[in-house]
Q: What sequence folds into this?
């Protein structure tokens, strides 16, 4: 099902609007998971929560994301991307707004679970839709903006939470939790009128609809015979069972493993930055908070050069070298407990910077390596498995600092990252320059196409500071 008219389409207003709309899910993810951290202290005090109940509120959204990705991914492959793409944002809006009237801890837990479920559902839907419309040479940058949107959302949550604390000293936590309704409404409005994926329509045999959609959106004519030929000569159509055998099982294991091996240390650094810096003997309130903000910024900054390098150097070398480089700063911190503050902050910042390429590939690889018929299912399953890692990391880091100390905690991070490195060396594939259908095939050469992007290609979705054609 090679559709050159989509793969080679010039980037226009439709692609940019779709990118912004699809970034709304990760933006809300970063915002929602961070805003609860700001609000949790006030919630605990106002409702007199026990430690276990507070922890349940903190982890409820992550548990919801596990089930959302696991259950809604397959549904999006059956009923389509567009329908679910709207329903999940409407759910987010209603659940966020309902936070204003919560009075009992169980209500907060239930709403946080529902919000997490909707976000977990949005990842396979939105990223599959974006990938299936995106021209070949823009897939890396599109997924780069997706992961960067998460970091923007997280930083916005801290700013909004701080401002609400100043404006509403008593009961401000309800407004913090409800504030995501504003973002949800904006993203929902942006998603209005988003068309279905033509690849999904063709996969379901709705060729005439796909042909008309391509004409109306891209202004390009493609014959019905071409689309029928593309469908019959395309890669073998997959089913959910195909995920658990052969090459697709290997790809599922690879993506899930490297994703989890990145997200566990990353989540620990992101959530427990002040505590980790405090374990090195630094003041958690000043150096810890400022240092954590710096490290968070470097996670975002690392994505910018990675966007271009993933296209010029390739996916496989970038993810392999990135995991190798990510182990080094953690190893330094494990060996050097009494390192000065500059060294500690430098090591955490280097880890964050090197994580840029794997962060993009968390979304790019699962969308490239699986066919249209099971793409959302595969992404949803990867999201679900990664949330197990996030939950485990969130739970174990404080215990690790108590029982193993800072050295043991850093060595654990080295070991986890090293497992990811081994998985990349063994299983990472090169998909640079390949059509979506070629990349998702179950065999054949992995060399990039001769039409792969070069540094001189016009790049309307280029990263900040990157060259743009005039």
A:
């Amino acid at each position: 099902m090679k559709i050159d008219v989509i793969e080679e389409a010039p980037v226009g207003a439709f692609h940019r609007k779709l990118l912004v709309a699809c970034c709304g899910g990760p933006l809300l993810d970063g915002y929602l998971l961070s805003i609860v951290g700001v609000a949790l202290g006030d919630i605990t005090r106002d409702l007199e929560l026990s430690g276990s109940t507070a922890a349940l509120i903190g982890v409820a959204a992550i548990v919801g994301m596990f089930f959302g990705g696991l259950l809604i991914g397959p549904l999006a492959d059956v009923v389509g991307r567009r329908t679910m793409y709207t329903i999940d944002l409407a759910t987010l809006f209603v659940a966020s707004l309902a936070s204003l009237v919560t009075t009992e801890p169980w209500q907060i837990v239930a709403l946080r679970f529902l919000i997490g479920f909707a976000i977990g559902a949005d990842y396979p839907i939105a990223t599959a839709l974006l990938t299936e419309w995106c021209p070949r040479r823009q897939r890396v940058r599109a997924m780069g903006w997706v992961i960067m949107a998460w970091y923007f959302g997280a930083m916005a949550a801290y700013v909004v939470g701080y401002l609400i604390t100043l404006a509403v000293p008593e009961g401000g936590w309800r407004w913090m939790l409800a504030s995501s309704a504003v973002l949800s409404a904006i993203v929902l409005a942006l998603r209005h009128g988003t068309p279905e994926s033509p690849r999904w329509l063709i996969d379901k045999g709705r060729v005439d609809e796909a042909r008309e959609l391509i004409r109306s959106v891209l202004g390009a004519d493609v014959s019905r015979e071409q689309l029928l030929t593309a469908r019959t000569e395309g890669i073998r159509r997959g089913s959910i069972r195909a995920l658990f055998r052969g090459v697709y099982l290997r790809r599922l294991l690879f993506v899930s493993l490297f994703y989890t091996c990145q997200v566990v240390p990353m989540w620990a650094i992101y959530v427990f930055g002040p505590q980790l810096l405090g374990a090195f003997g630094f003041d958690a309130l000043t150096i810890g908070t400022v240092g954590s903000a710096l490290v968070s910024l470097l996670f975002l900054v690392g994505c910018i050069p990675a966007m271009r390098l993933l296209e010029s150097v390739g996916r496989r070398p970038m993810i392999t070298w990135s995991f190798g480089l990510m182990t080094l700063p953690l190893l330094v911190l494990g060996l050097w407990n009494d390192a000065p503050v500059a060294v500690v902050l430098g090591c955490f910042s280097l880890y964050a910077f090197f994580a840029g390429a794997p962060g993009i590939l968390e979304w790019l690889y699962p969308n490239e390596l699986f066919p249209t018929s099971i793409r959302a299912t595969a992404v949803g399953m990867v999201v679900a498995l990664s949330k197990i890692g996030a939950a485990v990391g969130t739970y174990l880091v404080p215990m690790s600092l108590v029982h193993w100390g800072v050295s043991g905690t850093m060595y654990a991070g080295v070991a986890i990252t090293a497992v990811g490195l081994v998985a990349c060396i063994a299983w990472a594939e090169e998909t640079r320059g390949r059509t979506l259908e070629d990349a998702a095939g179950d065999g054949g050469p992995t060399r990039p196409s001769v039409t792969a992007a070069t540094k001189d290609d016009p790049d309307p979705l280029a990263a900040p500071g990157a060259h743009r054609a005039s």
Q: What stands out?
A: Residues 329 and 347 are 5 Å apart (CA to CA). The mean pLDDT is 81. The two ends are 33 Å apart (CA to CA). The chain has two domains: 1-234, 235-443.
